Amino acid sequence: MFQKILIANRGEIALRVLRACKELGIQTVVVHSTADADAMHVRLADESVCIGPPPSRDSYLNIHQIVAACEITGADAVHPGYGFLSENAKFADILAAHNITFIGPSGDHIRIMGDKIEAKRTAKRLGIPVVPGSDGAVTDEKEAKRIAGEIGYPVIIKASAGGGGRGMKVALTEEDLEIALQTARSEAGAAFGDDAVYIEKYLQKPRHIEVQVFGDGFGRGVHFGERDCSLQRRHQKVWEEANSPALNAEERSRIGGICARAIADLGYSGAGTIEFLYENGEFYFIEMNTRLQVEHPVTEAITGIDLVHEQIRVASGGGLSVKQEDIKFNGHAIECRINAEDPRTFTPSPGTITHFHTPGGLGIRVDSGVYSGYKIPPYYDSLIGKLIVHGRNRVECMMRLRRALDEFVVDGIKTTLPLFRDLVGNADIANGDYDIHWLEKYLAKEE
Ligand code: ADP
Prior knowledge:
Bound molecules: adenosine-5'-diphosphate
Number of strands: 20
Strand order of the largest sheet: 13-12-9-10-11-14-19-17
Number of helices: 15
Radius of gyration: 21 Å
Strand content: 25-35%
Mean pLDDT: 97
Helix content: 25-40%
Structural class: alpha+beta
Largest sheet: 8 strands, antiparallel
Number of domains: 3
CATH class of the largest domain: Alpha Beta
Low-confidence stretches: none
């Protein structure tokens, strides 16, 4: 097992990882920018190293500084959290070259999944169902028209290097295709320095369903069931649940089994998430994330398994603490992402939190790094906390969620809490009847 883990992140996820390390008796080092000197994870860590000024590229993305912090403190492993360097293959390779363990998969696996064309090709080879579309990159318009004609309109043009919902364009008819292809390519070139794009069928009313997988480092793979993350705004997840209200046990174990076998065949090590669109009973792979997800706590709530413990165990060569048959799904869990944003316009609302009171009681978990008097720096993501609620079934979970949202107090800044208070009383949400476009349509109606 590791002696000392350096946590290369900030906010709630830095605290989340720190908690797992403490439970396992592992010393912790956190790195932080000058803007985060007062952050909770800095206060609670055994050691901390300031690695630079507020902009992420000078601090949380500064590989040299982070490696130097490892050497100074003698950390033998790095947990990257999510975002920042968590899917940076070069970072994983550099750490390996310094004999420091990256708590995540190999640089090669990160590289494959970071390139969407390569990821889709790999998924297909491993027997994972994919969205019908071009076999690889598409450059000329004639070829694009031929492929789109074959799969049928509408189609979506996506950037191979894409992320965060950028570089995607929908073409409803052949007339739209030329412009969609050109704009997607120039956006992708500008945003990612790589203008490779591909075409796939545009699904009209899908749900976003993702499977949590783990490779144990010894060639075995398991799945921890799925999460439904269909409630999105601008392709960003807002509310996540496990299990999905749309799947039955048979579908769950079928898609889970396919994913677990794929992970084993790939020889993957650590946590991963295989993302699908789901429509009319069919799954269509869209991408794989090679890290811990923001929404991992809903899976923890229904399985009772600490996924960060498992990541650390696997990275240290100790394998998983569970086998597939030990992983059972109990009840239902929902996560609400609480952002420091206006609940209608979603413009960021940094500032000082004058009062912060979190709900409690049975089935309630709040993961957050903020506190009364905390000043939210304007430089980073606006996520200030996550409310995760568990119940024996979805109805009980929703009842408890409504009560917990009433109890939650965040004064001094605007947050997305009022949005969740509205959603929890909505009939479609109560029925679990929503697709990936539901929230945007709902917000447009409310304006
Ligand atoms: P990113 O990595 O940029 O987040 P994804 O491939 O994960 O890109 O897609 C993000 C979101 O875009 C999906 O959750 C879905 O809402 C939408 N999307 C992607 N591909 C399709 C498709 N073929 N049909 C319909 N919607 C899609």
